[in-house]
């Protein structure tokens, strides 16, 4: 399907930055990334991330954290006390500016995590502008979700508050030269606010906007009954939203509660709702998942790496969380210092092969309506597909079973005699060879054309 074939295509007017077309995004937990927990200490990792194949570096919230109602000793970075300030725990504005400059010199982009929906309970705005907040029938401030006890909800019917929030958003683009935002629980904020904010940011520079929301799956702590699946966030405001439905589907497959064939149902729902130029983000971990649901090894078991391959190479943008390349097998404390151990990088090579393929291969570009996707027929425990553009192709085979499985011979977008290169083993082969179509238990095979 081309973009113009989709019945709703004309509604989707966001112009993605050119540099997002081949991007992978990497989430940085600054507090726990290094023993120091600072911008400067993290900055030393940027050359390694560039070699890994990362394009977009997403920093979790960098603002001062509220003390009233604080959770743990250091609090949640999503309880913002000052939208114009920098958390002293991480460093200074100058340190952030230096980090961004270093990233740009390496060809990387930097986006900040932005919490527009709520503030800490001791944000100065509460006393300065009490009418900027939502109140209950008794006149008390209210949290956006019942157990988010360290924060209170802003009132987006107030035009002055909206103008303040847009000024805060533009401040960091101007002062720190950041390249966009990941917006926390974006669907809990009225879409028309985001539609207003994006042009203000674009007036400064091209930006990338990521919504923490999924119109195909309940987001923001909501139930299916409470959930709004028609926010239209991706039409005019956001480049990309979270692929939560796929994320939880992979969990359910690993638990035996769903099948690989259900991925096809998900992809069909995605194609029905969005034109192919739209980006959805796929991942096996992030800060919420790691701390509250468990590591990918807890949730996915032996399918952790095969499903990492799947998340990276299905249509969409892959995301990697801090420490995944180090084989992080523990939950990071969310409200405390809990540094990642970088002594060894057992999966650096695995993710480098995966993300560099994503970055360099023309058939894997994000939101490209000219790229073809072909699902391959095979045993129930084998998920296979081809992505192809102008004769260049990638074949992906994932085995979710305890026995080796083989893809049957069939007509594909690739001539069976065409030379292929195994991205992980380095072997040369063709699809006419049975060994090229055989996948080990809980394994994967990624083949690309030798162009």
List strands and helices in order, with pairings.
Blueprint lengths: L24 E4 L1 H4 L5 H5 L2 H7 L3 E4 L33 H13 L3 E6 L3 E3 L4 H4 L22 E3 L5 H18 L3 E4 L7 H12 L5 E4 L21 H4 L3 E3 L1 H11 L7 H12 L5 E4 L4 H7 L2 H5 L3 H10 L3 E5 L26 H13 L11 E5 L5 E8 L2 E8 L5 E2 L13 E3 L5 E2 L8 E2 L4 E6 L2
Parallel strand pairs: 1-2, 1-10, 2-3, 3-6, 6-7, 7-8, 8-9, 9-10
Antiparallel strand pairs: 4-5, 11-12, 12-13, 13-18, 14-17, 15-16, 15-18
Helix pairs in contact: 6-7
Number of strands: 18
| Adjacency order of strands in the biggest sheet | 1-2-3-6-7-8-9-10
The CATH architecture term of the largest domain is Alpha-Beta Barrel
Radius of gyration: 22 Å
Largest sheet: 8 strands, parallel, barrel
Shape: globular
CATH superfamily of the largest domain: Glycosidases
Helix content: 25-40%
- Give the class-level CATH name of the largest domain: Alpha Beta
How many domain units?
Answer: 2
The class by helix and strand makeup works out as alpha/beta
- What is the first-to-last residue Cα distance? 25 Å
- Count of helical segments? 14
By CATH, the topology of the largest domain is TIM Barrel
Would you kindly provide a written description of the structure presented here, covering whatever features stand out?
The protein is of the alpha/beta class and 451 residues long. The chain folds into two domains: 3-369, Glycosidases (TIM Barrel, Alpha-Beta Barrel), CATH 3.20.20; 374-449, Immunoglobulin-like (Sandwich), CATH 2.60.40. The chain is built from 14 helices and 18 strands. The chain has an eight-stranded parallel β-barrel. Strands 11-12-13-18-15-16 form a six-stranded antiparallel sheet, covered by helices on one side. The protein is globular.
């Amino acid at each position: 399907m081309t973009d113009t074939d989709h019945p709703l295509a004309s509604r989707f007017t966001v112009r993605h930055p050119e540099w997002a077309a081949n991007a992978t995004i990497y989430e940085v937990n600054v507090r726990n990334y290094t023993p120091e927990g600072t911008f400067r200490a993290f900055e030393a990792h940027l050359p390694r991330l560039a070699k890994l194949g990362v394009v977009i570096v997403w920093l979790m919230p960098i603002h001062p954290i509220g003390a009233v109602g604080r959770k743990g000793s250091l609090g949640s970075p999503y309880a913002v006390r000052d939208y114009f300030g920098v958390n002293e725990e991480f460093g200074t504005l100058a340190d952030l500016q230096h980090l961004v400059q270093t990233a740009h010199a390496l060809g990387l982009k930097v986006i900040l995590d932005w919490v527009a929906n709520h503030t800490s309970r001791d944000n100065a705005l509460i006393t300065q502008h009490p009418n900027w907040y939502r109140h209950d029938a008794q006149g008390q401030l209210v949290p956006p979700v019942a157990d988010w006890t360290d924060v209170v909800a802003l009132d987006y019917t107030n035009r002055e508050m909206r103008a303040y929030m847009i000024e805060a958003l533009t401040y960091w683009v101007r002062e720190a030269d950041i390249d966009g935002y990941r917006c926390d629980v974006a669907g809990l904020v009225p879409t028309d606010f985001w539609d207003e904010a994006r042009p203000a940011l674009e007036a400064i520079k091209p930006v990338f906007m990521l919504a923490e929301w999924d119109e195909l799956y309940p987001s923001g702590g909501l139930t299916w009954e409470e959930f709004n699946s028609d926010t239209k966030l991706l039409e005019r405001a956001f480049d990309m939203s979270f692929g939560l439905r796929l994320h939880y589907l992979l969990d359910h497959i690993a638990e035996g509660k769903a099948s690989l064939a259900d991925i096809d149902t998900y992809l069909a729902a995605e194609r029905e709702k969005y034109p192919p130029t739209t980006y959805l983000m796929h991942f096996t971990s992030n800060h919420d998942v790691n701390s509250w649901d468990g590591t990918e090894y807890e949730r996915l078991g032996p399918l952790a790496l095969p499903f990492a391959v799947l998340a990276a190479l299905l249509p969409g943008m892959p995301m990697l969380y801090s420490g995944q390349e180090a084989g992080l097998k523990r939950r990071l404390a969310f409200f405390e210092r809990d540094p990642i151990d970088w002594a060894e990088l057992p999966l650096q090579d695995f993710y480098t092969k995966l993300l560099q393929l994503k970055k360099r291969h023309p058939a894997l570009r994000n939101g490209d309506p000219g790229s073809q996707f072909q699902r391959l027929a095979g045993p129930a425990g084998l998920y296979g597909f081809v992505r192809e553009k102008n004769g260049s192709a990638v074949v992906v085979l994932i085995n979710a079973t305890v026995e080796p499985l083989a893809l049957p011979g069939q007509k594909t977008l690739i001539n069976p005699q065409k030379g292929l290169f195994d991205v992980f083993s380095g072997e040369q082969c063709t699809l006419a060879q049975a060994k090229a179509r055989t996948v080990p238990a809980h394994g994967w095979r990624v083949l690309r054309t030798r162009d």
